[in-house]
TrEMBL record:
It comes from Winmispira thermophila (strain ATCC 49972 / DSM 6192 / RI 19.B1). GO terms for molecular function: adenosylhomocysteine nucleosidase activity; methylthioadenosine nucleosidase activity. This is adenosylhomocysteine nucleosidase. InterPro entries: MTA_SAH_Nsdase (IPR010049), Nucleoside_phosphorylase_d (IPR000845), Nucleoside_phosphorylase_sf (IPR035994). It comes from the Bacteria. Residues 3-222 form the Nucleoside phosphorylase domain.
Length: 234
């Protein structure tokens, strides 16, 4: 069984059209759906926005379902200048960009007094995404940076460290928190992010319509990944 998470209802909406819905549950206002795709069982859930909610929901669902892997899906802002709006980024690794204990001599993004810093996405899940070549955009592998703020144009100048120090490719608000929960629980994970803006103020004029397209494109990416997993009897 695989756990698929998205921060907002709009980001997971298309999954209910693509996968067979078996049942729906609610945990403290966070909906989850038991689904099936061919021979694979799925749980698709809304995590809420931000690191705390995403970590909380992920941990709860790990304890309830013990999934084989967690796939977090959604939108993100491009830091890498090669990325275009609508492209898909598959996480190579991820980290928290707003965790700053540098005053203690600890590198930015490292959880103090632990070994948790740069969190590696599962290499097998990454490999399964190779060969995905959609008509609607390019596919990249990159570093996902997570923090509890929406990085817009006015912030970009004072957050140059995202690129210069942390070498980030995408910035968003949930991925590394889910990655940390999965790493602690020894559960493989992968982040899939559709580029919604360039983190410099340039974004689609109709954001609601873009979210709908992004959800459909993420569903297509998920189908590709699940087909590969099914072929290998995962």
């Amino acid at each position: 069984m695989y756990l698929v998470l998205g921060a907002m209802n709009e980001e997971i909406a298309a999954y209910r059209d693509v996968f067979q819905v078996i049942s729906e549950e609610d945990w403290n206002g966070f909906p989850s759906y038991r689904m099936r795709y061919r021979s694979l069982d799925l749980v698709v859930a809304k995590s809420g926005v931000g690191k705390v909610l995403a970590a909380m929901v992920c941990q709860h669902l790990l304890e309830v379902y013990t999934p084989q892997a967690v796939i977090f899906t959604g939108i993100g802002g491009a830091l890498n200048p090669s990325y275009d709006i609508g492209d898909l980024v598959v996480s190579r690794d991820c980290m928290q960009h707003d965790l700053d204990a540098t005053a203690l001599g600890i590198p930015r993004g490292k959880v103090p007094f632990t070994s948790y810093h740069v969190l590696e996405a599962d290499p097998c899940l990454r490999a399964f995404m190779q060969g995905f070549a959609p008509s609607w955009g390019r596919v990249w592998e990159g570093r996902v940076l997570t923090g509890d703020q929406f990085v817009a144009g006015a912030q970009r100048g004072r957050m140059a460290y995202l690129i210069e120090e942390l070498e980030g490719d995408v910035v968003e608000m949930e991925g590394a928190s889910v990655g940390l929960v999965c790493t602690v629980n020894r559960t493989p994970f992968l982040l899939l992010r559709i580029i919604s803006d360039r983190a410099d103020g340039n974004a689609p004029s109709d954001f609601s319509a873009f979210l709908g397209r992004a959800s459909s494109h993420l569903a297509e990416a998920l189908v590709f990944l699940l087909d590969r997993l099914g072929e290998r009897g995962e």
